[in-house]
TrEMBL record:
This is Polysaccharide biosynthesis/export family protein. Residues 136-183 form the Soluble ligand binding domain. InterPro entries: Poly_export, Poly_export_N, SLBB_dom, Soluble_ligand-bd. Residues 217-310 form the SLBB domain. The keyword Chloroplast does not apply. It is a multi-pass membrane protein. Residues 39-128 form the Polysaccharide export protein N-terminal domain. Pfam families: Poly_export, SLBB, SLBB_2. The keyword Signal applies. It comes from Labrys neptuniae. Its main location: membrane.
Length: 311
């Protein structure tokens, strides 16, 4: 469908501010599965595991007795071994056992099942000795990037950044890019801190890249200063933006015509228009011009709740 209008003009009023407050662009939680901690504690290819086998009495497959015939050892500790490319480990008398994708307890139970008809009431303890599969990579503007193991209880995005030494710049200038397979999402660091729902659990092989991108807005027209201005904080309202630009010029400006030019998310635009179509823009960004009439006293209140965005 062809775009019928180059842009839309919307007044900044109580309804506009309320609609924008309800709408939030999709963050990590919307882009990635985040219903709870992922199934953690499962073993993977490359992990090193240790296997201990116990029997109820000596004289079995793994027990020993001394020269007098008295009871000796009832257990054996197998040398640590790496889970091979097929996801398996080898255990004497049990053969090849699937380990990848299982928890240590599940691997132990599989070994017990394989030995049940051969050993004397066997019990098996499988321990992860070196984690090589459940890792996440953290790089960019952090103290010390690297690959870090996922905790059994689950590791969130901010946990991983802390493991990497924390951020090296002001939080309001930093963004976090999460790559999971072929999917990528970006969230500001301050949003992760202020909105715990976006601080999702990571999964094995996730990659985090923290980068610095100072946010700015540009002021043109009859103001005290025409310039590109840094945010300097996480939230900058329209009222603060006008103040940072030196305010309106008394002799040149029209107080009823303060405009904010922005590409608005199509979903937010439909909400602002009460579900109306977005002028041919079904997805992506819609060019919008917001208009503030500062001759209306209510505008001063609305401008304190209207948040500026980067660029």
């Amino acid at each position: 469908m062809a775009v019928t209008n180059p842009y839309s003009v919307l007044d900044i009023n109580a309804a506009t501010v309320a609609a924008l407050a309800r709408h939030r662009p999709t963050g990590f939680r919307g882009s990635f599965a985040a219903g709870g901690p992922p199934s953690s504690g499962t073993l993977g290819i490359g992990d090193m595991v240790s296997v201990s086998i116990f029997e109820a009495s000596s004289g079995g497959l793994f027990g020993t007795s001394d020269a007098t015939g008295s009871a000796g050892s009832k257990s054996v500790q197998l040398p640590p071994q790496q889970i091979d490319r097929g996801g398996r480990i080898n255990v004497p008398y049990a053969g090849s056992v699937v380990a990848a994708g299982r928890t240590p307890a599940q691997v132990g139970q599989a070994i017990v099942s394989a030995l049940s008809s051969k050993a004397i009431e066997p019990q098996v303890l499988v321990t992860l000795t070196e984690n090589a599969a459940n890792l996440v990579a953290v790089s960019g503007e952090v103290g010390q990037g690297g690959r870090f193991p996922l905790a059994v209880k689950g590791t969130r995005v901010l946990d991983a950044i802390a493991l990497a030494g924390g951020p090296r710049a002001a939080a309001h200038d930093l963004f976090v890019r999460l790559t999971r397979g072929s999917r990528t999402g970006v969230e500001s660091l301050t949003s992760l801190v202020s909105n715990p729902r976006e601080n999702i659990y990571l999964r094995a092989d996730d990659q985090l890249f923290i980068y610095r991108e100072p946010r700015t807005f540009t002021v043109l027209g009859a103001t005290g200063k025409n310039d590109t201005i840094d945010f300097t904080s996480d939230r900058v309202t329209l009222a603060e933006a006008i103040g940072k630009s030196g305010g309106l010029n008394d002799s040149r400006s029209d107080a009823s015509g303060v405009f904010v030019f922005r590409y608005e998310d199509a979903a937010a635009f439909r909400e602002l228009r009460g579900g109306a179509t977005s002028g041919g823009y079904r997805s992506g960004s819609v060019p919008v011009v917001y208009r503030l009439d500062m001759k209306n006293p209510g505008s001063f209140l609305w401008s304190q709740r209207f948040l500026m965005r980067n660029k």
